[in-house]
Design brief:
356 residues; 2 domains; 5-stranded mixed β-barrel; 11 helices; ManC/GMP-like_b-helix; mannose-1-phosphate guanylyltransferase; GTP-binding; GTP binding
Amino acid sequence: MDNRLYGVILAGGRGERFWPRSKKVRPKQLLPVISKKTMLEETFSRLNNFIPKEKIFVVGTEILKEPIDSLGIFSESNLMYEPFGKNTALAIGFAAIKLRSIDKDSVMLVCPADHSIFPDKDFQKTIQIGFDYALKGNLVTFGITPTRPDEGYGYIELGESLLDEQVYKIKSFKEKPNVKRAISYLKKGNTLWNSGIFLWKTEKLLEGIEKYLPEMYRELVEFEKHIGKSDERESILKLYENSPSTSIDFGVMEQAENIVIVRAQFNWDDVGDWNALERIKNKDKEGNIVEGEVVTLNSKNSIIISDYGLVTVIGVSDLIVVKTENETLVCKKNETGEIKNLLKILEKDEKYKKYL
């Protein structure tokens, strides 16, 4: 890889399924979930192994400005704040148009801020393979070999192998499946999980947006005229108000022809909900994961976390208990998908909004 490579970290998500730790003003990516560092800091460190600090940018919503600034690792010029979230196509397009103004020959590595990835050397090795294909004009995504029939991920069906079962053309994108379909994907062995990590020449990505999302591209080009000027912030607001909301997968990748997928050589988890802790942390002899002041009795296969005070459980199994200073969640492990619906209920009641 060379000095054309830039890192773009997407840090605008809400991490709702990690409530009550994850809140609007300090979501999952700004929490120390897998180490003492926040997940955003972990992602920055991973990229900084092979990309200079000054070439790593963060895209996040303005509501997160204070906690991101407080980390003290990014200069102001490397922070791109969205007035509000409007899906990944616009977040990535926003970063791309800014990068084009900095370096028209730039190559973008786009990474979510809140994934668990290790070891770093295998991540870098995989990115190097993708970089070579990006230089050829391809839009590159990275796929994870499935280890279980997971309903929470999108799947990518592999086409022709281009490099020793490491790089493939993409036959099709699959929506998040039900369990039965996920099992069939696993048995066939011709799909990878969609990691949400991308690599491309900035100009090639913008060509894709121009072709498949022309309305968004027009707004991006209009915004480009104001970069570095006194009215840049006002122009960002107009860009977001006038652009459509869609994902980069649906808006560009699923329609483009110059797309390839690289099979990841690293361990990966999107840390999507509390259950992910069972895959990335050590359990006690009863199969429990405990954090903070927790005492268990005759309890097994549970996740018990206390950030404030003592939590005790007796005779429970397959349960999630999370206690913060002002909120407590008790949830069956197979019901974490309902946390979003719970938050919608809280959102509707004025007296509960302070807990979000």
